TrEMBL record, chains A, B:
Record organism: Thermotoga neapolitana (strain ATCC 49049 / DSM 4359 / NBRC 107923 / NS-E)
Cofactor, free-text remark: Binds 1 divalent metal cation per subunit.
Coiled coil keyword on record: no
Essential cofactor(s): a divalent metal cation
Residues binding substrate, per UniProt: A129, N203, A204, R211, H235, L291, A292, G293
Keywords: Carbohydrate metabolism, Hydrolase, Metal-binding
Positions annotated as active site in the UniProt record: D258 (proton donor/acceptor)
Family according to the record: Belongs to the metallo-dependent hydrolases superfamily. NagA family.
Binding site for Zn(2+): E118, H179, H200
Segments forming domain Amidohydrolase-related: 43-363
Single annotated GO MF: metal ion binding
Name the record gives this protein: N-acetylglucosamine-6-phosphate deacetylase
Length: 366, 366
């Protein structure tokens, strides 16, 4: 961490918008922003946040490969991420949470912000690529063990005993509805208690029907519900991304990769928890054809979103970083503003990553 | 047709908005509008337009009961309507068009504006309450026989030979996609040729899927596509109506009743074309449970839409009259403006119809 000046860039802040100038970094923080007219040599945005990633380039949350994930994600401009589990045993969950806690303790400037527990309290009908044997209803005993660094728990509102999950809100764990067959009203019960987030919308959710719009309809209708989107062009068609953007605006969208350990390999076989996943032409599926996570890289998610929707750079900063920071109460990042943590990504005009800065250190450079 | 002054009303125009005053009517037209501050004794809106009604109170388009339909519809504030057929033989279509033509010729001030041909060129998979034996693909020979007073034809874009239907546009017949399993792209082919309307959205349409948003996704996504809505609270849930309103705004919505001859009778048995329909608790269904039109009255459609969406009075004038007038090129009505035809409906504050005026004549008074 030393003094750094990022000169002549188009600065994109999710609140103040776009302007040209220089950014001075000192002691890991943005210490000064100089607005001035210049021809920018790149686009400077707040470092990307991926709140839903299972693995990448062979590294896997289930194997606690946090360091390898972190390392690779810098090449994608990601400066904050949640290592994401699939439905598993309580023992395994405790092990992963424990190791993540240690890793964060030993690496105070790590981009690993915590763990996203996807399941196991989800719907069997909407299990997607979760192993059925681990899917269960929540109990007081299990919930006692779930604590920080868990930051998000994906659950199905309609399952038995789901109401006790609301206790997790007191531990500052964000509840995200997902892998769910919930009706509109079943979701609304949790919405009224503060659940305002939906996991990989609208994958693994009850389909929108005109007589029961369900959780998907709720996600579209309710302004203050934020939805994760996998913008790989496979999980959702371009038109669906456009529709979500049109209905909710950038303020309601959080880009994620949902990538698994094979991301980065065109073909091959891997596992997602207990399940065998085959990757063919870059798309990972279970044997029965069910999509099993993605092979999406975060910088491509940003490019695709821009291409599908025509969003502005300011909006890209909102969906790739700011919204996630807001929901996690991360007040020290997600903006390009004096006093904020120097988590930054420099992009060329085609949105390729040129450089990533984490807490003032250059952690990647193309 | 004589001179009439409608005094002290809240005038609601779909363009100029709401203001209080008096409306003077002479020779069937609005001759003067006097704006002035006053306590209004009712809400004056352009007469309602129902472009999709099969029958009501025992009267049926298939039996050419135009006079009885017209008569009853005045009690609903409807001053323009399209008598709507179900899929039937060419002979029957010709008979209905012929009789409608005669009726309009003999009654120049009738509210029967023409015929909406719903089918027979629709999808077998999405047939709803249409008799399968009449569903067919279009041919040059049949199209020769289809002419005014047909004003709308509901068709499925994806069926064989559907492209020849575009010829009907030259006869000023509006093409409306419906009873259709069309993909997004199948609909887009017709959209690009000028088809910008969808029948009773999203009933009898391919479901919105996140990887193929289909014709339903197109209806939501495309600003200049207008969609018919059956606001009876049965065909679509309240939330779905809200969602369509939220996405498209009042400018994209056309209220219809889609009512059948049993509308007005709580219980009973009737036919829709060849099919037997049973009405139970006000909901008409085929034996297999398929919804078969509605028992909705137009004034209730307006009330429900207001209740479901919170739309303003100006927006109610847009969805109940103005949009339909625009799409049919009806430049002489749909506004409360000097020089326009005096087709008016006076409502109380709960939107009950107090009086209906057609071409300057009081045709209903509560």
């Amino acid at each position: 961490m030393f003094f750094m000046v990022i000169e002549r860039v188009l600065i994109v802040d999710p609140v103040d918008g776009e302007f040209t100038g220089d950014v001075e970094v000192d002691d890991g923080k943005i210490c000064r922003i100089r607005k001035r007219e210049c021809t920018p040599r790149g686009i400077l945005m707040p470092g990307f946040v991926d709140p839903h990633i299972h693995g990448v380039m062979g590294a896997d949350t289930m194997n606690c490969d946090f360091e390898r994930m972190e390392e690779f994600l810098y090449s994608q401009g990601v400066t904050t991420f949640l290592a994401t589990t699939v439905s598993t045993s309580l023992e395994k969950m405790k092990e992963i949470l424990g190791k993540a806690r240690d890793y964060i303790f030993k690496n105070p400037e790590t981009s690993l912000f915590g763990v996203h527990l996807e399941g196991p309290y989800i719907s069997r009908e909407k299990k997607g690529a979760h192993s059925e044997k681990y899917i269960r209803t929540p109990s007081k005993e299990e919930l006692k063990e779930i604590d920080l660094p868990a930051k998000v728990l994906t659950f199905a509102p309609e399952i038995e005993n789901s109401a006790i999950l609301l206790e997790l809100l007191e531990k500052a764990i964000v509840l995200s509805a997902g892998h769910s067959n919930a009706t509109f009203e079943e979701f609304m019960k949790f919405y009224r208690e503060g659940v305002k987030r939906i996991t990989h919308f609208p994958n693994a959710l009850r389909t929108l029907h005109h007589r029961e719009v369900g959780i998907m309809g709720a996600g579209l209708l309710l302004d203050d519900v934020k939805v994760e989107l996998i913008c790989d062009g496979v999980h959702l068609s371009k038109e669906m991304v456009k529709l979500v953007y049109r209905v909710k605006g950038a303020g309601g969208i959080i880009l994620i990769t949902d990538s698994i350990s094979t991301a980065g390999f065109k073909e091959g076989t891997t596992t997602l928890g207990d399940l065998v996943v085959k990757v063919k032409e870059d798309v990972p599926r279970l044997e029965d054809g069910t999509l099993a996570g993605s092979t999406l890289f975060f910088s491509n998610a940003v490019k695709n979103f821009q291409r599908f929707t025509g969003a502005s750079l300011k909006e890209l900063a909102i969906v790739s970083s700011y919204n996630a920071c807001l929901e996690f109460g991360l007040a020290d990042r997600g903006r390009i503003k004096e006093g904020m943590k120097a988590d930054l990504v420099l992009l060329d005009e085609d949105l390729n990553v040129l450089m990533t800065v984490k807490s003032g250190d250059t952690v990647f450079s193309a």
